[in-house]
Amino acid sequence: MINKQILIVEDEPTINRMLVNYFKKEGYTVYFALNGVDGVSLFKQHDFNLVCLDIMMPQMNGWDVAKIIRESSDIPIIMMSALSEEEDILKGYSLKVDDYITKPFNPKVLVAKVNNMLSRIDQPSKPVNTKNILKTNHITMNTDTHRVFIDEQEITLSKKEFELLRYFIENEGKVCSRDHLLDEIWGFDVYVEDRIVDTYVKKIRKHLTPYSDFIKTIFGVGYRFESYVQKT
To answer: Could you tell me which residues come within 8 angstroms of residue 144 by beta carbon, excluding any fewer than 6 positions away?
Structure first.
C-alpha cells in the first residue's frame, strides 16, 4: 500500500495501539487519537484517505466527529462500536458513513474492509461507450442494436425507417431535400420515386406520436428534424 494515510480515533489505548500496528504492517501511514476532539484536530491537519472512528468516546462522540468530517469531506468513514442496536447502525448511515463494524472484531477483518474500500476507490471506472447511442428530446436510439425508445417506451421500426430517423437526428436543424435523403438512405445506384421519402416520413411520424411534429415539412424543398422548441 503506497501513500495511503488513515486516521484511527479510538479511546481504548490497547485497541488503538493494536489497530495502529496492524495497519502499519499493511503499509499504511497511520495517525491516531484517543478522543474525538483530537481526532477532529488531526483530520484538519492532514490529508487522509480513510477514517476508522469509534462512537463512545470522551469529550466528543463519534457521531459528532463524523458530522464535522462530513461538513467538508466525503472521505470514507468506518464506524467501530460495541453498539449493535439497529437504530445506532441506521444513525451511522444517516450521517453518510460508509461501513460499520461491531465490537469485538478481528482486526484483520477491519483491515480487509479498508483494503477493499480503498481499492474500489482507486480502480478507475470503465468508460461508458456512448458512441452507439443517439439521444434527442424524448428519443433514444441504439445504433448497434437498432432499438428505439420514445420516452423510454420501445417502438419498432423497419430498417429504412430506422436509417431515416437516424439521419434526421444526426442532422437535426438542417433542411434535407427529398433527393438528398434518397441518396443518403436508398443510395445513388437505386432508382426509386422521390415520393417514397414522403411515405416513410409519414410512417415515422406515426411512430413518433405524440411527437410527430418533430419532422417539419419545408414546402417545395423537403424536411427538417427539430425536437427542441426554438425560443425567440
So the answer is: 132
Determine, yes or no, domain membership for 113. Answer: yes
Determine the longest span between alpha carbons in the chain, in angstroms. 88
* Number of independent structural domains in the chain: 2
Please report, for the chain, how many H helices and E strands are present, in that order. Answer: 8, 12
Residues 138 and 194 in one domain: yes
73: left (phi over 0), alpha (psi -120 to 50) or beta: beta
Output the pLDDT for position 152.
83
- Rounded Cα distance between 34 and 36, Å, is 7
What confidence score (pLDDT) does residue 191 get? Answer: 65
Among positive and negative, which fits the CA dihedral 97, 102, 106, 109? negative
Alpha helix stretches (DSSP H) within the chain: 13-25, 36-45, 62-70, 86-94, 107-122, 159-170, 178-181, 195-207
Same domain, 137 and 64: no
Looking up residue 216, the CATH number of its domain turns out to be 1.10.10.10
Q: What's the average pLDDT block by block, 10 residues per block, for the chain (232 residues)?
A: 84 95 94 96 94 91 92 90 68 77 89 87 52 86 91 90 94 90 81 82 94 92 80 32
